[in-house]
Specification:
Helix content: 55-70%
Number of strands: 2
Strand order of the largest sheet: 1-2
Number of helices: 12
Low-confidence stretches: 1-32
Strand content: under 5%
Order of helices and strands: HHHHHEEHHHHHHH
Largest sheet: 2 strands, antiparallel
Radius of gyration: 20 Å
Length: 330
């Protein structure tokens, strides 16, 4: 029969988010505009939010698919990407680069960080036969360490990038969107399409999918599993850093931004199907849209809780997620 155990982390995430104090006002926007116009605007905002979540979540999903590791430190990779770009772009101690080369350097730094963590930490632990529960606990410790290192170096005060901070919105009928947000959305979609092409049309992508389906069979077929895992860590770190830059650009940079976004990443991955990169994309898009549209009726502070409520309802009908494979127990 289908396995319902995937509901347990979802319920836990919901309790965490619902525990946040609700806002005092209602989630109304632009009282002078009609409901249809507000709905279209919320849908556009939801798509933008969803594709950013998807960029950060794909690498986390690939990691789970290849080595079955739930990496709680992934949120800190997102924060580090944004903080590194901020250092190069704004910080007085940095070189003062324009945001575009600073973002490119942050992606490279994220990829190198992913490779370093795999070679210096996870590969030795795997070689010792460390169990998944122990590895999971290590990811929590690594998350706390990296988060507080960022706090010490970056500080607790929120900040923003030097370029593209304040812009006038482009009006497209009832929809308004700034050139910055439109560019971030289109770039996020292009990155997701690029990941899909990588997985489907390249030898590396074929190897990643083979390891994800059956690691032992892939190794017996001559695939270098350790190299594939390293590539996945590099890709995961790069996408997390890029997603951090995007999120910091449309929102704001804080020392714990990745940890807050991590809950939505997990939600998108679980909704789409554990271990499925395409499922992470679809699930994250659903989470982003539901979160934004819910603000039409409910307080903004509850938008993530309503998104996770939809997640639970869908999983009650399809426990393996939208694009996940059915599992059997016993």
């Amino acid at each position: 029969m289908r396995c319902p155990r995937v509901l347990l982390p979802v319920l836990a995430l919901t309790l965490v988010l619902v525990a946040a104090p609700p806002a005092q006002g209602q989630g109304e926007v632009s009282r002078g505009r009609g409901f249809g116009a507000r709905l279209l605007q919320s849908l556009v905002d939801g798509v933008q939010f969803g594709v950013i979540i998807a960029v950060t979540a794909v690498g986390l999903s690939l990691l789970f698919g290849t080595i079955h590791l739930i990496n709680f430190a992934h949120g800190e990779f997102v924060t580090i990407g944004a903080a590194f770009a901020f250092f190069l772009n704004v910080s007085a101690a940095g070189p003062g680069w324009h945001l575009i080369p600073a973002a490119a350097a942050a992606v490279v730094f994220g990829a190198l960080l992913g490779a370093a963590v795999d070679r210096g930490l996870w590969r030795p632990l795997r070689a010792r036969g460390t169990g998944l529960i122990n590895l999971f606990i290590v990811t929590i410790g690594l998350s706390l360490l990296l988060r507080h290192v960022v706090l010490v170096l970056f500080g607790a005060r929120p900040a923003s990038f030097a370029q593209y901070d304040i812009q006038n919105a482009i009006r497209l009928g009832a929809i308004g969107i700034t050139p910055r947000d439109l560019t971030v959305t289109l770039l996020s979609v292009a990155v997701l399409v690029g990941v899909a092409v990588l997985l489907q049309r390249t030898r590396t992508g074929t190897a990643v999918r083979a390891v994800s389906v059956n690691r032992d069979l892939a190794e017996a077929s001559g695939i270098d599993v350790q190299r594939v895992v390293l590539v996945v860590w590099i890709l995961s770190g790069a996408l997390a850093a890029l997603g951090g830059v995007f999120y910091g650009l449309v929102e704001i940079i804080t020392w714990d931004m990745g940890f807050k976004l991590l809950l939505l990443m997990f939600a998108g991955i679980i909704l789409g199907g554990l271990g499925s990169a395409y499922g992470a994309m679809v699930g994250s898009l659903v989470i982003g849209i539901v979160a934004q549209v819910s603000t039409l009726w409910f307080p903004v502070d509850l938008q993530y809780a309503w998104a996770l409520l939809v997640l639970i309802v869908i999983l009650l009908v399809r426990p393996e997620g939208i694009l996940g494979r059915p599992e059997r127990t016993g």
